[in-house]
Amino acid sequence: MVDNLRIRSTPSLSGTIVIALDKWSRLDVSSNPTSLGPVTADGYDWYPVLYQAYTGETSGWAAAGDPATPFLATLKPRCDEPPDVILTEYEQLACLGTGSVTIEGTYGCGECGGFAAGTFEPGWLANPVDGSYTLRPKPGTIGIGQLDMHKAPDAGIELPAEGAILRVTGHFDDDAASTCFIAPLEGEVPTPADERAALMYCRERFVIDSFVQIGTDPNFPN
């Protein structure tokens, strides 16, 4: 919303400037649960952002401004865009989160894995590693890129071996999102994320209701 918006390496005015952006530049706010905003410092709320240009991607922290002079504004979700436009997780929630959604794709992530340090509750919904299962939607699936799926512990769902082609039915905005608590481990002490950010992250998760296996992907994991 302003010219020369400085994106910094850390959420503070002392952070190194990594890029300065023109007015009307589009930024994606990170939904990585180990780095959620806003973080309050030096009189501003700061958000972890990603700026994408033809020359590459730049990440950092952007100050939101104040009520009199906002630096950032939320864009309208692109619900009516062509199928080749990949929606952000926020847009998936806004555009597809009103009911049941069915998606076909290859289950599994091959070499994915790792560990998320901190506290994530409920774990099955909030943990980005232990509670997440990857689906790669088939080409042409409207607005969906790689999808992180979750399953409730009482749903009785057992997924097949990775590489299976699944038709998955599920939903966004699960009721359990209202209880989400996220505290990434920074140093030796978990630091609770902003309650609004934790709620939004969990509302954006896709929760499996049911699935059927319709084949096996011969190219998995490539």
- CA radius of gyration: 19 Å
- C-alpha geometry: globular
Question: Which architecture of the largest domain per CATH?
Answer: Beta Barrel
Predict the CATH topology of the largest domain.
OB fold (Dihydrolipoamide Acetyltransferase, E2P)
* Proportion of helical residues: under 10%
> Regions with pLDDT < 50 over 5+ consecutive residues?
none
List the helices and strands and how they pair.
Blueprint: E1 5-8, E2 17-21, E3 28-29, E4 39-41, E5 44-53, E6 56-63, H1 89-96, E7 101-107, E8 118-121, H2 123-126, E9 133-137, E10 147-150, E11 164-171, E12 181-186, E13 189-190, H3 195-203, E14 206-216
Task: List its traits.
OB fold (Dihydrolipoamide Acetyltransferase, E2P), 4-stranded antiparallel sheet, 222 residues, 36% strand, 14 strands, single chain, 9% helix, mainly beta, globular
Overall description:
By secondary structure, the chain is mostly beta strands. 9% of the residues lie in helices and 36% in strands. The protein is built from three helices and 14 strands. Strands 7-9-10-14-11 form a five-stranded mixed barrel. Strands 3, 4, 5 and 6 form a four-stranded antiparallel sheet that branches. It has a three-stranded antiparallel sheet with strand order 8-12-13. It starts with a strand and ends in a 6-residue tail after the last strand.
Describe, in short, the structure shown:
The chain is mainly beta.
